[in-house]
Task: structure prediction
Amino acid sequence: MKLKTILICIYAFVCAGFVKAQAQVLDTMVNTGTYSLHFHIIKGKGLPILFESGGCDGATVWDGITAMLHKDLNATLITYDRPGFGKSGLDTNKVGVINDIEGLEVGLKKLGFDKRLFMVTHSLGGSYTMVFSARHPGLIRGAIFIDTSTPCYVTPQKSQEVLTSYATKMDSFKRELPGVYYLLKSYAETGLRAAEAAPKAKMPITVIGSDVPPFNSSDNQAWKNCLRLFATERPNRKYILAKNTHRCVF
Result:
């Protein structure tokens, strides 16, 4: 995805006056009750921007973007590792999208970022953002969805196909990548929760779709069609096709 496209969209939402300043960085672990969640925060002014990563990504996936954004906007930028990813812990007795979001809520409240947010979300992170926004009407003032999962695409049938495609790897995931293992185990539930929450996601959303989705089948067109459909379901959403871009899987 072209960084310029993302920057332009964020500027359109987050344009409070700012003064260039040297970044203050807070890299911290927050106790959520049964595990610790890792946050990386570049402090700034105006509306804080929270980044929600794709399925198998941690906070560092945003490093290249956040460095440039802070230089231009001086906004507060928040990235974090979901449970089981990066530096974050994991409570295997409390897994799934709702439990993950409850941990995020605890972390944001303890850090003082539970009043208003702008969100930038990628891939499976779109499902998390929809559920999060439905639980907190009015908290998210606007969002950018970058090639995100949509209820139109992540159907129960598609969820089963995804699980089947990873069936032979699940044992090794459980041993070596527990975050990925539990994310996949709860993939169908995440899709269902996102479908329930989507009608309640009433904040303005810019949907950015890649020109070349990640699949090697007719799913490419289905993915693109579902993104367009999601963008047209409410009048305060718009769709942008980022031409000559490729998207990574998940």
About this structure: Confidence is low (pLDDT under 50) at residues 15-19.
